[in-house]
Known about the structure:
The chain is mainly alpha-helical. It contains 18 helices and no strands. The chain has a single domain (9-419), classed as MFS general substrate transporter like domains (Growth Hormone, Chain: A), CATH 1.20.1250.20. The chain has helices at residues 9-32, 35-45, 50-65, 67-75, 82-104, 111-143, 149-176, 186-207, 223-236, 238-252, 257-267, 274-300, 302-312, 315-326, 331-363, 369-383, 386-397, 399-416.
Amino acid sequence: MNEHGNLPPAVMRANYFRGVVNGAVFTLGEAVSNPGLVLSLLIRQLGGSLTLVSLIPVIQSTGYLLPQLLVGGYVQVLPHKLPIYRTFAALRIAAQFAVVLACYFSTDISPTWALGTILFCYALFNLGGGVTTLSFQDIVAKIVPPTKRGRFFGTRQFYGGLLAFAVGGPFVRWMLSDASPLTFPSNFALISLVSLICYATGMLFFARVTEPAAVQVIPRQGFLDALRSAPAILRGNRRYRNFIIVRLCLLIGRLAEPFAIIFVTEQLHLPKSIAGLLIAVSAVAAASSNVLWGRLGDSRGMVWLLRVTGSLAIIPPLMLFGAPYVAVLGSYVLVAWLLVSSLVGGISADGVGIASMTFLLEVSPPEQRPLYMGLANTLLGVGAVVPVVGGILVSQAGYPVTFIVAAVWSTVALTISGSLRAPQSN
């Protein structure tokens, strides 16, 4: 019997629905407290340096990715992964609640304490996310058949994009505009609270899925054993190895992202409320493309999808490089230019996300899936420290050089993706 065959059709439909709601509502929460836009502005408004801003994507990526090799060997021996998901979901909710409090009381304590608390809780939230993601992906592989996974992830992001466009973007723009009924830091506290509600709702829905027991469970593998097995896994699975290299290059190609909103507000002198517009446009890009990407990925293959959407990642940094030259044509033209950049970036990021998650599920042996996924995500977590280099580049060489370097690495990723081959059907 396969991983999905022991679930009645009604249960599979209920699982699918809960998984879609989880993704849609969680995406809304992520859009409202967007790390590259809203959180970056919060850090700057509290007096944080560009170095602190550069730590945001590092904390996010390493928090999600690095712990997975530590727990992958433990998780893979469990016949059910849902208890792990529920435990760390509760930890994430508590961490986000602490962020709300830190934002609200940031003017009553020193900026250093406020910044430290927010960044620490943000790190805790993402560390919990690393464990919940590992269990989430294994559960999805058991409750969604391979032929429907691309559509599943695309549908989640489609509805999440619609919510972010219709609700998240306008809400953030309103809270950060001069017309906001709240001043700093209450506006950021309310933004964080709305994100908390979305996160808690999304995780609650997924916590109620029905998870079948694993078909095959292998003996527990400790961290050192997993570490020792990593070279053999990378040597023996070429598709897996090449995929990690491509994803590392794409991650490096995003080293300029956390500085885009700082560049737009501080160098191009646009208002902070532009963040809401950029969130909305990125969200509508996701909503308009994700179902298409999911269906095309299922029919054309995830390798094809990764190449196409990965190639689009070259465009946004180049458009940011050209933004000062466009600015001479007027603020409306500049805003339109930036919105197009955000649109393309949203289409690219979500397409790469669908392709990467699905391809990794396909290329990992079912009985060792947590270990393979933990290893891949840990290696990607090492590459996620690159935004710190972006902060140094911005400080030492300026924004234009940083944008060009980002575009070059995305181009390298596209070139290497030619070596990827689709896994055999399972």
